[in-house]
Amino acid sequence: MDHTVTLSVRTLVEYVFRSGSIEPGFHGTSSMVEGTRIHQKIQKQYKEGDRKEVYLKTEIPYGSLLYIVDGRCDGLLVSEDGSLTVEEIKSTSGLLDMLEEGHEVHWAQALMYAYMVSLEQELSSIQVKLTYVHRATDEQKSLYRTLSLDELISFANDTVARYAPYAEMMVRHDAKKEQSLRELQFPFPSYRKGQRHFAGAVYKSIVEKVSLLAQAPTGIGKTMSTLFPVLKAMGEGQAKGLFYLTAKTVTRFAAQEAISLLLTQGLQLHVITLTAKEKTCFHDEGICGKDSCPYAEGYYDRINDAVMDLLEHETLMSRDTLALYAHKHKVCPFEFSLDAAYACDAVICDYNYIYDPRISLKRLTEERKRETVLLVDEAHNLVDRGREMFSASLLKAPFLEIQRQYKEVNRNLSTAAKSVNAFFISLRKICNEEGQGQWASFPEELPALLEIFSLEAEQELIHPSASIVPQNGEGENVLLDTYFAVQGMLRTFKTYDERYITYAEVRRGDVYLKLFNLDPSHLLRQMSKSFRSQILFSATLSPLSYYRDMIGAVEEDYSLTVSSPFQKEQWEVTVLPVSTRYHDREASLIPLTQALNQMVSKKGNYLVFFPSYLYLQNVYQAFTENYPEVRTLIQDTGMSEQARESFLAAFSPDNDETLLGFAVLGGIFSEGVDLPGDRLNGVMVVGVGLPQLGLERNLLRQYFNARGKNGFDYAYVYPGMCKVLQAGGRLIRSETDTGIIVLADDRFLQSPYMHLLPEEWRDYLIRS
């Protein structure tokens, strides 16, 4: 055989035998946990001599390839006469009576195990048992077949033959990819200052299978500094794939552009960008399922051809490219992108697909993870995003609504919702006079109540008992949304430890309960530990000790700070010593408008960033009243992608008049935006970016104080100054850029704020 193809039984049979439609928009997220429980329950009933989770492996030659197939058989049972039965166990929420003869893909998995056992044991025939168990009732239905060895050999060979065209295509691609990776050259004539050192640290981290936290200044070329060494490591067999993870869409575009440049240099790579479902869906009604969407109906009958077509003809698979092929093959574009992603060498996507337990790519095998590198762009965002991913919350109101809606049509669901609603009523009574409560553990009675609700809600969602008339304009999604919120909390109960706190608040008559993750470092490390290496990089990982703590670095992980490649003379940095504290903001309007007018006195393009939208509006109104001759733009709330693009497009290098844009600090225009040259001539940052005082931030402050850290810095100062540095980083993007930065707050002249400024900014202030 020229090449070997290694794959699991499940991967093989799902590719060949999966068929039918995407079922209506609900998929029970508890099914994996319930499936494990059901497997274990049945396997406990095995008698002496029976075996469970039996590892099997075989080799099947076909064409020029040798297929190495392995997997674990649920059960290998021995009858009284010594004959063997292979059992495959499947959990289901569907009605057992509707299963008839079972699903073909499930039989295929069982038959492959039967083939492997028959070969190993030299059996002439074997019995196969396919057992379905209802998740809600534990009711069982078993189906039986007896097959000869010849029948099983024919089945296995036919299955591999149907998989072979895909395998052969991937082998051809891998050969071209590996050659192109070996020959790949750095796509620019030379490295920028510090860029080669950065790239070398990335490569070393991959070789040594450790993580790297790198603070590298804006403009050094971080995207290429990380992508190129990963690709060279892949060419030398040190890795087989990569995920480029981002927090915002705009940084995804930067990664696409970098890879596009490498593709023009001869790189052969399958690269896909994953986009959120709501941005890709062809079906305007928003109802997902075969009865309402033609792209869901028969999806699995067409998906293999669609993926083959895409991979044979494309390398860089953007949202638009995926849409073209999805239309061509009439498949759901979002599900299509996920199925294609498992076959690609590089995936550009949001953090969620790796770190968020609700969304992460479940079919990524441990073997593939061990050969994959994570590139985490703008990694400073991972701290708060991690807290968000690992926290969970519930409101009382939806349970009361479900209790009332289903009272006549689904008594069990209504009763389950009533019990949770009663819990919230009790919770409200134990809150203090301010309507708040805090606890070091979650309420011990809540998991059982939510388990019962989840089970009843899942059955109702799969088999609706009646058409529910929406109340208060809430629509029919209240049950689905509540189900997923409950699943999130049930999942969080399992990770809850000393890094969490539980709090409740009475909000406008409703009761809000949250399991709040204070320190995401442990869970971030758990979600990423299986991968070969994790490269976390940003222009604002300062102080590095804080980010190492919060992202979960271990002792052997590397840290790197890359010096700025730019000259200090490219900046003109000044501090406007005005107070922007909340109670002083009215008094700051005149000094700020005057300073802005002075900043824009020289023709050019300028941006000013504010700590809140209300503050922005107040200064905007004062400025436009006093200086109507200056052209201005203002960031609106909830801007569409088209509106964002129009906003940025206005900052053109050939403007005939001065332009001043008003934007929010920490918002869509304050990081990940590239306005080189005369597209941006100056930036003012108003305030030191401290998050708004509130319960959660104060809980963080208390938590870190109790652990010997500076709680105020961890909860307020470091996250705030990160926003400041990101906003200021929009200015100097290349060796030829120049411009002015105005830091509008007297605290910039004080510790710790001044010490957290970039060295080149501090030096300018000291010199001036």
From TrEMBL:
InterPro entries in alphabetical order = ATP-dep_Helicase_C, DinG/Rad3-like, Helic_SF1/SF2_ATP-bd_DinG/Rad3, Helicase-like_DEXD_c2, P-loop_NTPase, PDDEXK-like_dom_sf, RAD3-like_helicase_DEAD, XPD_DNA_FeS
Q: Which residues form the Helicase ATP-binding domain?
A: 181-431
Q: What family is this protein classified in?
A: Belongs to the helicase family. DinG subfamily.
Show the PROSITE patterns listed in the entry.
HELICASE_ATP_BIND_2
What top-level branch of life does the organism fall under?
Bacteria
Q: What is this protein called?
A: ATP-dependent helicase
Gene Ontology molecular function: helicase activity
Alphabetic keyword roster: 4Fe-4S, ATP-binding, DNA damage, DNA repair, DNA-binding, Helicase, Hydrolase, Iron, Iron-sulfur, Isomerase, Metal-binding, Nucleotide-binding
What the entry lists under PANTHER family is as follows: DNA REPAIR DEAD HELICASE RAD3/XP-D SUBFAMILY MEMBER (PTHR11472), REGULATOR OF TELOMERE ELONGATION HELICASE 1 (PTHR11472:SF34)
